[in-house]
Amino acid sequence: MSAKAAPVIVRNTRHADFDGIIALSRRVYPEILPWGKDQLSSHLRMFPDGQFVAIDIASGRVVGVSGSLIVLWDDYHMHTNWVDLTDHGMFTNHDPEHGHTLYAAEVMVDPDMQGRGIGKKLYKARREVCRRLGLLRIRAGARLRHYHKYADKLTPEEYVLQVVRGDIGDPTLSFQLKQGFRVIGVANQYLRHDPESLGHAAVIEWVNHKVANRPDFAGRDPKYGKPRKKPSSF
Questions:
Q1: Strand order from edge to edge, sheet including 8-12
Q2: pLDDT at residue 20 above 60?
Q3: 141: which residues sit within 8 A by CB, 6+ positions away?
Q4: CA 131, 231, 216, 172: dihedral to nearest 10 degrees?
Q5: If DSSP codes are grouped into helix, strand and coil, which group holds residue 134?
Q6: Helix, strand or coil for residue 143?
Q7: For the whole model, what pTM was predicted?
Q8: Least confident of 54-58, 205-209, 227-231
Q9: Is 76 helix (H, G, I), strand (E, B) or coil?
Q10: What is the dihedral of CA 211, 71, 202, 217, to 10 degrees?
Q11: Which of 22, 41, 75, 224 matches a 20 to 30 Å C-alpha distance to 89?
Q12: How far, in Å, CA of 177 to CA of 171, rounded?
């Protein structure tokens, strides 16, 4: 096993994981209210197959989390904020009957465990759900974690363009681009009270090419790059 490989397993979330998820969210987002047990319970009621944890085998600790729901994107738009897209974090707007978009509402990795492949495993599990359910795509808001360092000289859109080009590295967006996502827009009031992103997020998309047709690529802002026309290897 590589020295950087984390001895973790990724599995669906259980009620017994809630304390570990809350503790992790306090570490990752010290300036934002952590997940609550009422929210996490609602996630499991609404869409248990879309919720994952990464567990450190040696300690049994929760070292990574991802949460998703299915939405009908026509009910939303590029500037819809996180609160509305997740119904205040409750996922009660989960719509498997009409929706064709897996909305990636959360992903986080223990800061002490980053760079060990945990995020990749969580994203792989999420893509497998999308493929298994025959959904069109995954969309998410990639909070621009380093934007506060550039806000005095770049607009959010300019910052995103430089990250896409590789001129600037952003811990969240740069990683997601490597996972096969592409930017399709910028939401400027996505997380209003986030001190790192100052509320801004890139709207990103991964397309399930087994389902997508040419019209599904329409309406994208070309300045952020062309859509992938061939299936990704992920």
A1: 8-12, 51-56, 62-71, 101-109, 137-143, 201-207, 182-187
A2: yes
A3: 82, 85, 187, 190, 191, 201, 202, 203, 204
A4: 80
A5: coil
A6: strand
A7: 0.91
A8: 227-231
A9: coil
A10: 30
A11: 224
A12: 11
The amino acid sitting at 74 is: D
H helices of the chain, in order, are 18-28, 37-46, 82-85, 118-132, 156-165, 173-178
pLDDT of residue 230: 52
Q: How far apart are CA 2 and CA 14, in angstroms?
A: 29
> How many separate helices (H) and strands (E) can be counted in the chain?
6, 7
Note the Cα 198 to chain centre separation in Å.
18
Q: What is the DSSP letter of 56?
A: E
- Assess contact for 154 and 88: CB atoms under 8 A: no
pLDDT at position 1 is 40
The two structure tokens encoding residue 26: 């306090």
Residue 115: what pLDDT? 87
| Whole-number Å distance between alpha carbons of 70 and 197 | 25
Amino acid at 132: R
The reported pLDDT for the residue numbered 2 is 43
Residue 209 has pLDDT above 70, yes or no: yes
* Tens digit of each residue's pLDDT (9 = 90 or more) over 110-163: 999 988 899 999 999 999 999 999 999 999 999 999 999 999 999 999 999 999
